[in-house]
Design a protein that fits this description.
Layout (H helix, E strand, L loop, with lengths): L1 E4 L4 H11 L4 E4 L17 E4 L7 H9 L4 E4 L9 H6 L3 E3 L8 H16 L29
Parallel strand pairs: 1-2, 1-3, 3-4, 4-5
Helix pairs in contact: 1-4
Length: 147
Amino acid sequence: MKAVAYNIKDFEKESLALANGKVHDLTLISNGLNINTLHYTAGKEVVIVSEDDRLDASILEELKAVGILKIVTRSLKTDHIDLYRAADLNIQVANTPYADRTPKGIAEQTIRNLNLWDKGKCVGTACRCVRDCNTLAINHSDGKHNR
């Protein structure tokens, strides 16, 4: 998948590169996601953000307009993302919910989400969609929506 990751800190770069293993086309940006940095999403399918990025309705609409279909947040929380507007726009949202909160662990969870989406599968417990996935036409490996 082609993805752009915003708000990347120096200590995260190596972990993401190693977890990715040159599978996905990742662009790493140190700037936060906002209207002025939106141009980095051109040609991408996925946006990877941190909890410092605020994805309100207007940013989500802009992301959808440029073809973004999926968002991964490198955080447990998703209160920085308007999940209801994302659902209205049929944008899938995932977080990194596992106990390993090290940069390596978060990077591995992020890439795991990309790998599953790339195979047309649900991201399981990382799914933060507020609608039933059947309405979003997501292929579930286990046949149910896990939150």
